[in-house]
Amino acid sequence: MTIQRMDNVAIVVDDLDAAVAFFTDLGMELEDTGAIEGLWADRTVGLDGVRSDIAMMRTPDGHSKLELTKYHTPAASGAEPENPPPNTLGLHRVMFAVDDIDDTIARLRAHGAELLGEVAQYETIFRLCYLRGPAGIIVALAEQIG
């Protein structure tokens, strides 16, 4: 038996509206929003008294999704360190292919995004960068050259 697909990646954020705005400016589309609570939610995530709001974002091609989650109860706990470097164990980053990396960076800077390094070129194939997005996550961008 094999998996059918990767359905989504979840990101816990402290400001759901700001995260939706960030990923909308990146080019994702808001698919749906909803409130999550009840015994089924508690059992699924292994926490008691879960009450959260989610926003499901999808890429324009419809193949990839991000689930942005704002926990009201229990309160979200902060990661240590606050803005972990790219070589921290665990979830590393989320990467998006973009058609204009410079324009994308400019749009995301309006939402507080900061480059971790600089835009670099890999051979004659890609221009790449890492930037820090909502809730300190690392968002990678790749623009194919040519």
Automatic annotation (TrEMBL):
The keyword Cytoplasm does not apply. It comes from Luethyella okanaganae. Keywords: Metal-binding. This is VOC family protein. InterPro entries: Glyas_Bleomycin-R_OHBP_Dase, Glyas_Fos-R_dOase_dom, MMCE/EMCE_epimerase, VOC_core. Residues 5-144 form the VOC domain. Transmembrane segments: none annotated.
